[in-house]
Amino acid sequence: MRNQTRQNATNASPAREGRSADLRFALSVLGVTLAVVALLASVVITFAQETLTDGARPTQRISTICADRHVQLVTLIEDLDEHPKFAGDKLFKALLAMMHAHDVCAGGSEYEALSLYDRAVLDLVFPVGSLR
């Protein structure tokens, strides 16, 4: 009886591993989705505040080059998000880096922001330590 129970547990292992991998993938997709939703909510709230205060608060403006780099990084994140083997945590970190770079650029430090955008792209495209 005990041997039969061990055999059943051994036979169920590949199916369990498959479900575990599916769950990890679903959780990584959920994490990226939640991050994108949070970013969009932030944009909507900012827009609503600007509209409701009727421009009383100074608006944040970023340079054209920062905006271009922002769009390039968003496009890269979206393209990599569609790849089933790409790690969701790397995409989430890139999204956070992108938001930070946007704030830095809006604060007037354009060159530092461009450096942050470039670092986020490099971290996505090349694994850590592969450039050494």
- Note the gap between the termini: 56 Å
User: Taking all residues together, what is the mean pLDDT?
Assistant: 74
Order of helix and strand elements from N to C terminus: HHHH
Main sheet characteristics:
none
What class, by secondary structure content?
mainly alpha
Rg from Cα: 21 Å
> Would you count the extended β strands for me?
0
Return residue spans where pLDDT drops below 50 for at least 5 consecutive residues.
none
Number of helices: 4
* Count of spatially separate domains: 1
Overall 3D geometry? Answer: globular
Residues in helices, as a percent range: over 70%
Proportion of strand residues: under 5%
Structural overview:
The mean pLDDT is 74. The protein is an all-alpha fold and 132 residues long. It has one domain (2-125). Helices cover 79% and strands 0% of the residues.
Summarize the structure.
This protein has 132 residues and is mainly alpha-helical.
Please outline the helices and strands.
Blueprint: H1 2-52, H2 64-81, H3 88-106, H4 110-125
Record keyword descriptors for this entry.
132 residues; mainly alpha; 79% helix
